[in-house]
């Protein structure tokens, strides 16, 4: 189906939230951004970006006006988004620097961008709270996903055991070849359990960031973790990949949004 080309959703998440991982397909952008670039920071034609977001939202179940975007800096800052933040990125400038967003407001579509880094979407169907995490290898080493789970617990009373997490398309171990600094950082965070995600190939290492983040989620108490198997660096017909394309490319979006109930969050 066409919408399956435009985005990848969750297979097992509880009802009440939209889960969306965009692909390169189904948009109107041209040249190096062809065709579904949804990141207004890349230098693409802004009208094309807005139209791409409208098409993605129509397929996945949100409006472009619902999106909330941030400037990502490979850190561990987490921002609480409100209904008044809707439209940030497309219709007003992005001011916040962070790598994760949380909210309990409905129709606030939390958005993080990737092009090999790991996107993680979090949903507590009991407390009706969500989170979106951008986790590159530095963010993974700093346990940004575990910190986001803790922040959701502190802000909204979430119990990690009922949170449903989806780890989206990113560079997989097959393509993520690194020097020793990356595995060292993972071991510093997780100890010897990180070794399950590290393979030595001569003087290089292959690191499975999906598995590392799954281990971090489990350590945080999250028992329901879905892992989407796609590799962005292998499947460049479907995804943007920084490792394969450099800076001349678009970005993928991971979007999560609470759908409407009788008690929407006030501005």
What do these coordinates show?
The protein has one domain (2-258): CNF1/YfiH-like putative cysteine hydrolases (4-Layer Sandwich). The termini are far apart. The chain is globular and about 45 Å long. By secondary structure, it is of the alpha+beta class. The strands form three sheets. A six-stranded mixed beta sheet has the order 4-5-8-7-9-13. Strands 1-2-14-6-3 form a five-stranded mixed beta sheet. Strands 10-12-11 form a three-stranded antiparallel beta sheet. The mean pLDDT is 96. It has seven helices and 14 strands. It has helices spanning 2-6, 46-60, 137-141, 144-156, 181-190, 209-219, 242-245; strands at residues 7-8, 17-22, 67-68, 78-80, 100-103, 109-114, 118-124, 129-135, 164-167, 177-178, 198-201, 204-207, 224-227, 252-258.
The class by helix and strand makeup works out as: alpha+beta
| CATH topology heading | CNF1/YfiH-like putative cysteine hydrolases
For the biggest sheet, the summary is: 6 strands, mixed
Overall radius of gyration:
17 Å
* Strand order in space, largest sheet: 4-5-8-7-9-13
**In the CATH hierarchy, what is the superfamily?**
CNF1/YfiH-like putative cysteine hydrolases
Termini distance? Answer: 37 Å
Helix content: 10-25%
H/I helix tally:
7
Task: Report the order of strands and helices.
Answer: HEEHEEEEEEHHEEHEEHEHE
Note the main attributes of this structure.
7 helices, CNF1/YfiH-like putative cysteine hydrolases, five-stranded mixed β-sheet, six-stranded mixed β-sheet, 14 strands, alpha+beta, 267 residues, globular
Question: How is this fold's topology laid out?
Answer:
Layout: H1 2-6, E1 7-8, E2 17-22, H2 46-60, E3 67-68, E4 78-80, E5 100-103, E6 109-114, E7 118-124, E8 129-135, H3 137-141, H4 144-156, E9 164-167, E10 177-178, H5 181-190, E11 198-201, E12 204-207, H6 209-219, E13 224-227, H7 242-245, E14 252-258
């Amino acid at each position: 189906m066409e919408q399956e080309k435009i985005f990848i959703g969750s297979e097992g998440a509880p009802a009440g939230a939209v889960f969306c991982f965009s692909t390169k397909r189904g948009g109107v952008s041209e040249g190096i951004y062809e065709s579904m670039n949804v990141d207004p920071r890349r230098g693409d034609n802004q009208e094309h970006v807005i139209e791409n977001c409208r098409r993605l939202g129509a397929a996945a179940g949100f409006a472009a006006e619902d999106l909330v975007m941030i400037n990502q800096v490979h850190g561990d800052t987490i921002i609480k988004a409100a209904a008044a933040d809707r439209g940030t990125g497309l219709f007003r400038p992005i001011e916040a620097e962070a790598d994760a967003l949380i909210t309990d407001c409905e129709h606030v579509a939390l958005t993080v961008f990737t092009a090999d880094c790991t996107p993680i979407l979090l949903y507590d169907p009991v407390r009706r709270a969500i989170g979106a995490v951008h986790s590159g290898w530095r963010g993974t080493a700093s346990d940004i996903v575990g910190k986001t789970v803790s922040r959701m617990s502190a802000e909204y009373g979430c119990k990690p055991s009922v949170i449903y997490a989806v780890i989206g398309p990113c560079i997989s171990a097959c393509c993520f070849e690194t020097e020793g600094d990356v595995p060292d950082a993972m071991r510093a965070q997780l100890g010897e359990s990180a070794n399950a995600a590290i393979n030595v190939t001569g003087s290089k290492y292959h690191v499975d960031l999906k598995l590392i983040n799954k281990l971090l989620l489990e350590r945080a108490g999250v028992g329901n973790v879905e892992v989407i198997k796609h590799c962005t660096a292998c499947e460049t017909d479907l995804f943007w990949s920084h490792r394969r394309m450099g800076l001349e490319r678009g970005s993928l979006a991971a979007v999560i949004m609470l759908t409407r109930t009788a008690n929407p969050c006030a501005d």
